[in-house]
Amino acid sequence: MPAGKRFKVACIGAGNVGATVAQYCLDMELGDIVLTDIVEGLPQGKALDMTQAGPVRGYSCVAYGTNDYSDIAGSDVVVVTAGLPRAPGMDRLDLLEKNGRIMSEVCENIGRYAPESVVIVVTNPLDVMTYLALKKLGFPPRRVVGMAGILDSDRLRSFVAAELGVSMKNVDTMLLGSHGDEMIPLPRYTTVSGVPITQLMGQDRIDALVERARKGGGEIVSLLKKGSAFYAPGASVARMVQCILHDERQFVPCSAFLTGQYGHRDVYIGVPVRLGKGGVEEVLELELSTDEQEALNQSVEVVRKGIEGMKEVGVL
Ligand code: TXD
């Protein structure tokens, strides 16, 4: 980056998650934000409000709201949260078609105005939408990555910390597979300051915490009644933005394109990656037990069905 120039982060979709990503990115002083949405006034209002928090929070970066895609020009990172939630009566294919069409339109504009960016996809169904984004953008796969694993792992970290009465900062974990119900925890890689939790609690407690993390999104949806989680998802995306812009090369779980790793190719699934300036710099292959490999294969099958579904409805 030339001296004196700030990074630029575009958030496409200024709803709950998009706006929270923007807010965390500003607070972390990662760069200036462009918030865009199809709803007129929404991104403008939220951007103005966020910028006005700057003097109190002590950041110099600003947010700009727009309904015009050309304003994302030159963005270093583009975060896509645009989409519709699954409404009552809408089946899986309906949602795939609707969000697939939105994703296609969004990607056409990213390709036109921010062709050098790293794109982080957040819209559900996550692995399927990230695959669609890759195909529509035609970017190298390392520059198209999905967010889900950091969120699932952060949920598990918070539950483990509460259970053991230790700081959340001391708990680390790695997991695989799709988002939520399909996640594959790796308790032997879940540690408190390097000590595996398998040495700190019984298998029954580990199972209970993993189950709660797996259903973590649903637990929040049923409490909120309307809408879904956005603070932890927003924080998880902001951490990915930070890894990329600051070339941190953190080892984190993300939805990444496989080219033979774990026995799969031409599909997106949650795996450990090294995340840095170029996006996904490497997919790390862990040794898996037979059960874990089997669970990953099943997760991949679900994603493949989603990809087939998009072909059925003519989005892909
Ligand atoms: O872990 C994860 N990946 C997730 C995914 C965690 C949380 C949320 N997850 C998914 O993200 C969720 O299932 C949705 O598919 C997205 C966005 O969730 P959010 O809670 O932010 O939804 P909102 O508040 O409904 O915001 C969506 C916005 C809304 O303002 C729409 O007007 C806008 O998307 N939208 C568009 N913006 C731009 N362009 C187009 N075409 C468009 N269509 C809708």
The description of the largest β-sheet is:
6 strands, parallel
The CATH top-level class label of the largest domain? Alpha Beta
The low-pLDDT segments are none
Average the pLDDT over all residues and give the rounded result.
96
CATH architecture of the largest domain: Alpha-Beta Complex
Going across the biggest sheet, name each strand in turn.
3-2-1-4-5-6
CATH superfamily of the largest domain: Lactate dehydrogenase/glycoside hydrolase, family 4, C-terminal
DSSP summary, beta strand count: 14
CATH topology of the largest domain: L-2-Hydroxyisocaproate Dehydrogenase, Chain A, domain 2
How many DSSP helices?
10
- Radius of gyration, in Å, reads 19 Å
Topology as a string of helices (H) and strands (E): EHEHHEEHEHEHEEEEEHHHEEEH
Alpha-beta content class: alpha/beta
Q: Separation of termini?
A: 35 Å
- The fraction of residues assigned to DSSP E strands is 15-25%
- Secondary structure: helix percent: 40-55%
- What bound compounds does this protein have? 1,4,5,6-tetrahydronicotinamide adenine dinucleotide
How many domain regions?
2
Shape: globular
